[in-house]
Amino acid sequence: MKPVRDIELRHGMTVSDLVASFSSSGGFTASEVWKAVGLWKEMVESGDTIFLSFPACIVATGTRGVLVEVLKRKLADVVITTCGTLDHDLARLWADYYCGTFDADDTELAERDIHRIGSVFVPAENYGKVIERKLGPILRDLSYPIGTKDLVWEIGKRISDHPGAEKSLTYWAWKNRIPVFIPGITDGSVGSQLWMLWEEGKKNLIDVFADEHDLSDVIFSSKSTGAVIIGGGISKHHTIWWNQFRGGLDRAVYLTTAGEYDGSLSGARPREAVSWKKLKPGAGSVCVYGDATLTLPLIVSALTDSVGRR
Fold this sequence. Notes:
By secondary structure, the chain is of the alpha/beta class. The chain is about 45% helix and about 15% strand. The strands form two sheets. The protein has a six-stranded parallel β-sheet with strand order 6-2-1-7-8-9, with helices on both faces. It has a three-stranded antiparallel β-sheet with strand order 3-5-4. It is globular.
């Protein structure tokens, strides 16, 4: 057994130094954060095809900048996420979101036409309305049918000359040719824009099976796969579902706030995925409990110090 050592805070200490000290701190989530860094580093050094899945809510926060850094440094090869990720990423390119509070009077916010995402305030004008105004012309200029991977890349290309584009996930996905798959593309403001095009008579817009074909190519051409899975829902399930067809992930890092007691996918730990062959028996895995807006910046900061850019 390894003895517990105190974390020693010192002047000039880096995030990497701090996370490294978690390895012998004994508990609790801190030690899992350290393991997550090590597993993600193994994915990079082993040449795994790395899947990154996450929900949209964190893109509404400053954690968007951490996700951008992951794509910029090519520390993930494939992204699977929700339509809201496109919503928030693009809306924030064109307008501001604001720091708020969980304890706000939501009736008052509704009267003032302000949406609340946890502790983030979003004026209605800066969300659906700006997306309709700015994205509508882009969508009308595209050729259809199109898969969500190519949809994201086409949008990324068209916003590339916009001031601040380098802060956008969509831009870096296009720039570094990182496929982004959105299996629930209709569930968001961007999806609503596509629906309005459909109502206008443009049929056969989104080819979801083109995405599945592209995903199958990724899965069956990969010698090994790893995944960093933030939260749950459709993005988590699509990631592990596809990996079962190759016998399961070789490595997995879960970041979640959900428990497994209710049988939800969001709370399902890596060991449950083994029973479905979505994760290989004996595969390296860790489940980090905690808010990803705190844990992910720690993990990525320590990781980038140790592996740099791919």
